[in-house]
Each structure stands twice: as C-alpha cells, then as structure tokens.
Amino acid sequence: MKILGFVGSLMLLAASLAPAAEPSTASPAPAAPTAAAGVPSVSPTAVSPDYLIGPGDTLQIFVWRNPDLTVTVPVRPDGKISTPLVEDMVAVGKTPSQLARDIEKALAVYVKSPEVNVIVTLPASAFSQVRVIGQVLRPQAIPYRSGMTVLDAVLAVGGLSQFAAGNRAHLVRNLNGKSEEIKIRLGALVNDGDMKQNLALQPGDVLVVPETRF
Hints:
It is a single chain. The protein is 20% helix and 25% strand. The protein contains four helices and ten strands; from the N terminus they run H-E-E-E-E-H-E-E-E-H-E-E-H-E. The chain has helices spanning 2-17, 96-107, 150-156, 186-192, and strands spanning 58-63, 71-74, 80-83, 86-90, 116-122, 129-134, 140-143, 169-175, 178-184, 206-209. Strand 6 and strand 7 form a beta hairpin. Residues 1-45 have low confidence and may be disordered.
C-alpha cells in the first residue's frame, strides 16, 4: 500500500510540473469568397464573342449597379428586344458586345455612365444552328456550340445511313453573303479516322450527305 501511495504521489508531482498547453495561435481558415452583392450568378455562355444574335435567342441584359434594369428577355420575331427604359431595341444581327454598347447609349439618357453586359443564355435562333441533311439517321437542326466539329454533328444525328455517300459530303457555308461549298470525306472520317476531315463548324453551316449512286 505504501508503494502505491508513493507512485500516486510521483504522478501528481509530474502533472503539476508539466508545462501548461499554450493557446493555439493558428489563424482561422479564411472564409470562402462569396459572390458580390447584386451580381447575378450566370453560367458561362457557349457562344463565341462574334456570335450574331437572332430571333428566338434568350438574352440576359445585366446593367452594373442597377439591378432594377437587369432582365432576361427573348429576341422577338421582329428581331427586337424590350428592356426597362429601352423599348424596341434592334438586337438581331448584332454581337452581344455590339448590343451592349447600343443599350449603354440608350440608357445614358437616364443613367450616369451605364455599364451593360449582354449574355446569350439560350442560343435558339437559326443563326445558332447547324443543319445536317441527307443520308443520316436523323436529319435535323442542332444547336451550335463553341468548338463544334463535323464529327460532333454526325454523332448527334446518329451517324450515316446505309445509303450515304459519305465521301461526297460537303458543307454549305455563308461567307460575306455568299454561299460556299466545302468538300468533306465523311467516309474517311467516320470509317478510317481521318481527322483532317473533322473541320470546325460555324453557326449557320449546313452539312449535306448525298445518297450513293447505283
């Protein structure tokens, strides 16, 4: 019993002599950044900066520091949009940045130094489509997205039909108001993996796949 009492005394003595734990000086983890007040959370648009707005597109008109003027509007069949303080603004045929500058000029009558950003949230006009016609499984118009290629379009329509003359396919593209044909060997692309045929597409392109000649 004396031995146990002696051991207990040693344990108490060691505990009293142990240095007290120092308070932690580590800085608290920084809080996650939050979105600035009044700035809407918007997913990046897939359209390119030179995208031409067309009827049926949906646009977000963001006016910096003026949330009452920030709206999402459709482009009407007549090619115009209406926003607070700006009625019947022509949008069709303009790029998002061109439309933003035009809206800034119109708002300058009411707002001091307005800053406007236009985002195409839903490209749905004919200007933003690629059409695939002829001998494919599902001929249709496909919404254009940035970086789209011929192979992307062919896969989207289910591939070539059994009667397709793939190597006689061509793109019809409008360049500066003139129609131009670009030959594409789709058979070599799809069957042989010839990626030189995998051209980048542009909004408004028409991919034509003719029928095999017997």
